[in-house]
Design goal:
globular, alpha+beta, three-stranded antiparallel beta sheet, 3 strands
Length: about 80
């Protein structure tokens, strides 16, 4: 994911610990045309990896819309 355009800096959005839910959110963002990358924190297979929430990398300029997708998918308490 290049970082060469104005406003194309990538920021992290926490998704929680559910791998399936994180993958579905990433696909929902992509379906809406957003350039995102899913970081699965348990992909290393270590116990420590499972202690950190999965993250989504999204362009800073898309952050508001991506956050809406995340909030629609993960009920806020």
């Amino acid at each position: 994911m290049p970082n060469d355009d104005e406003g194309s800096r990538f920021v992290e959005v926490q998704l929680g610990f559910d791998r399936f839910e994180a993958a579905m959110i990433a696909e929902a963002c992509r379906a809406d045309g957003f350039d995102v990358e899913l970081l699965l924190m348990d992909a290393s297979g270590t116990v420590a990896g499972g202690l950190a929430p999965h993250r989504l990398l999204a362009r800073e300029t898309d952050l508001d819309m991506v956050t809406r997708i995340v909030n629609r998918s993960i009920p806020q308490t």
